[in-house]
Structures are given as C-alpha cells and as structure tokens.
Specification:
By secondary structure, this protein is of the alpha+beta class. The chain has 9 helices and 28 strands. This is DUF3179 domain-containing (Seleno)protein.
C-alpha cells in the first residue's frame, strides 16, 4: 500500500510539474530536445491525473480509515500540496497567464505618437499602408494580431531570442487564433486554437502536434528606430501603449539597448557569445550571421551570398540597419556609405536608406531588399544550424 501511495503521488506531481517545466525557462529545461515529450504530457495530462488518482483511491481510503493521526496528517498534506501544484503550474506559471494580449489596441500618426523617436520598432508595409510596432510593447505581449493594408497579420517578438517576425495567421487558408503556450530552446511558442499544434516563433513552423512541419506564411518586416522608420514612411501609424500594461512595459524600458532585467534578455557586449547580437540573413538556401560589433565599427559590410553582391548597412543612429543586393537593373554596383546615404562610386548615383535611388544615373530604381534580423547569437545558430559566419 505504501508503494501505491508513492507511485500515485509521483505520477500526479511529476506530470503537473513536467508539463510546465519543459516549456518554460527553468534551469536545464531548454537545452534538450524534449518538445515531443512535453507535448505528449500536455495533451494527456487528464489521463495522468486519472491514473494517479485511481492508484491512490484505495490506499488513501484505507489510510484515512485506519491510519494514525500522523499518517492522516502527512497524506492530507501531500493532497493539499498537489492541489497547490495544480494551481501554480496551471494558473500562475503558464505563459498565457504571465503575458496578455493588449486590451486597448490604439494607433496614431508619428506626430501624435507617445513613443519616443529613438525607440526600436518592427515596421511592416502592405498594400500601401505602413505600421510600426514598438519592441517595448510587443516584447511584452509576444504577439499582436492586427490588420495591415486590409490583411490580418500576426506581429510577434521573443525577448529571450531578440527575434521579431511577422506572419499571416492562416493555416491551410483559414484564419487561425493563437495563444502563447511556452518556449522551446528559449524561443516563444504558440498554440493554434483548432488543432492545438505548437508553432515556433523564430521560424513560423509547427514543431509538434497534428500540423507538424507546416509553416505560417511570413511577411517582410524591418527593425529600426521609430525616427528612421518615419523618415522613410512619414504617414505610418504607430502602435501606442495600452494603459492596462504600463508596469509591464516599464520592465522593458532598457531592452532596446541590451540592458534586460535578467540574464535571459541582457546583451553580452563581446562578439560571438550566446548573448551577443548578430545580424542574420537567410537568402535562398544560405544562412549567414554578421557580428553587430563589426557593423557598428564599419557601418557597412560587403559580402557575396547566393552569387549576389550584398551590403549590410547601419544608419548614423547606430540602431537602424538594412541589407540590400548591391546591384542595379544595369549591373553590379560599388556602393559606399556617406552622410547616411549609399553612393555608387562608379556613377555617383545616390540611394536613401529605403533603397530608393534619389539622384543620378539610376534615379527611380530601387536596390533589392534582403530580409535581415538582429537577434542573439544563440538563437540564430539554433534555428539556422548550418549558418555561415562572417568573422
């Protein structure tokens, strides 16, 4: 009977704890490939509870009927402790009870915005409409469902990976609702309402569940300071703080500059450390990482990817970056950075930071943009394991 009590309580306690442990940033929980086990426990937690209780029913009844006061006290304590664990690990320590969606989603023009111009934003342009989402806000919410240019979009951000991504929230052509369920390898993870599959924020891929292997359609986005964004898109709308979450936003006040409140979100100023910043580019089948410190030093990096000449450029504010193919409709260019503009040394044509040629031989043309992300090195190399590195 004692063995039955031990086994029953172990099943009840371990299933509740492991259900959360594997998908939250507890010590040792994020390094191993345990996502399928975590999903199995999550999906069948009801069965684990039923099995544990069935094993316990008879020995508990016998113990409370004939056991000593000490036995009754100890078993009663374990039962209450289990109920406490259920409450803590289902209503206090779960991701969607720690991070909530905005209740008051408000946008305004740049002139009336309450967001400081030096704050970082994730910017999206679609069907002629531009919108900016301050990282300080979406970093807390993790995801914001919005409409840009008449199209529903899912703007996401993971502060532990420093990854901003935008997706169309459609699965097999059908609009889908998502909730933050936890994290895997330190990256935010969402659960779709229809099938309960889990989706990785950094890649938009369903990593476990019925839809495993599917990808959400991605949307091009750019990260830069609000000032730089409004310089390019003066008519952009800017997301405003929800008064309901003033305290939570304050916790991310210094996040933009790499000064997080915990080691999970704080930048390492040295290069190529887990918490170092990199610029990650995925072009064709090639992924490559560029050292942020090198970009700050040189402001422009030249490289060749997928047989194309490219440039990675940092604006004078030392925050806003861009990546372009260094080519025109008439052939390759030799671009140099001067006065926050790109100049072709062969023709003196001038491009602005949106990649538009504003003067010279190629006026009216645009440099092909390349999707580029600023994120922690540990994140980029985890989700792009075959990445190249520019030293």
């Amino acid at each position: 009977m004692r063995l039955s009590l031990i086994i029953g309580f172990l099943i009840l306690f371990l299933s509740e704890i492991l259900k959360v442990y594997f998908i939250m940033p507890f010590p040792g929980s994020q390094q191993a490939d345990t996502i399928d086990l975590a999903y199995f426990i999550h999906q069948y937690i009801g069965y684990f509870r039923a099995i544990g209780l069935l094993i316990l029913i008879y020995p508990l009844w016998k113990s409370f009927s004939n056991g000593s006061k000490l036995t009754k006290f100890v078993l009663g304590g374990f039962t209450l402790l289990w109920l406490g664990v259920i409450y803590m690990f289902n209503f206090q320590l779960t991701a969607d009870h720690m991070f909530y969606q905005p209740k008051n989603k408000t946008f305004t023009n740049g002139k009336d915005s309450k967001i400081a111009k030096d704050k970082l934003v994730i910017g999206v342009v679609h069907n002629g409409q531009a919108k900016a989402y301050p990282i300080q806000l979406i970093g807390y919410h993790h995801q914001v469902i919005d409409t840009v240019g008449g199209t529903p979009m899912m703007i996401t951000y993971c502060t532990v990976c420093r990854t901003g991504r935008v997706y169309l929230p459609f699965v097999n052509g059908k609009f889908e609702q998502f909730r933050l369920v936890g994290m895997d390898h330190f990256n935010a993870m969402f659960e779709d309402q229809t099938t309960g599959s889990w989706w990785q924020q950094a890649t938009g891929e369903a990593i476990t569940g019925k839809l495993k292997g599917l990808n959400l359609p991605s949307v091009s986005s750019e990260q830069m300071s609000l000032s730089a964004w409004l310089q390019i898109h003066p008519n952009s709308l800017v997301m405003q703080p929800d008064p309901e979450f003033k305290e939570q936003y304050a916790g991310l006040k210094n996040y933009d500059s790499g000064k997080g409140k915990s080691n999970l979100t704080t930048r390492d100023s040295l290069s190529w450390k887990p918490k170092s910043w990199v610029i990650g580019i995925l072009m064709g089948k090639t992924a490559k990482a560029y050292d942020w410190n090198q970009l700050v030093k040189d402001q422009i990096i030249y490289d060749t990817l997928e047989k194309s000449n490219i440039v990675v450029v940092l604006e004078n504010d030392k925050k806003s970056f861009h990546a372009f193919k260094s080519e025109s409709p008439f052939g390759p260019l030799k671009l140099v950075l001067k006065n926050n503009q790109l100049i072709d040394s062969q023709s003196d044509a001038v491009w602005n930071m949106d990649g538009k040629c504003i003067a010279g031989k190629y006026e009216g043309s645009s440099l092909p943009k390349i999707e580029a992300y600023q994120e922690f090195w540990h994140s980029w190399k985890t989700f792009q394991p075959n990445t190249l590195v520019m030293q």
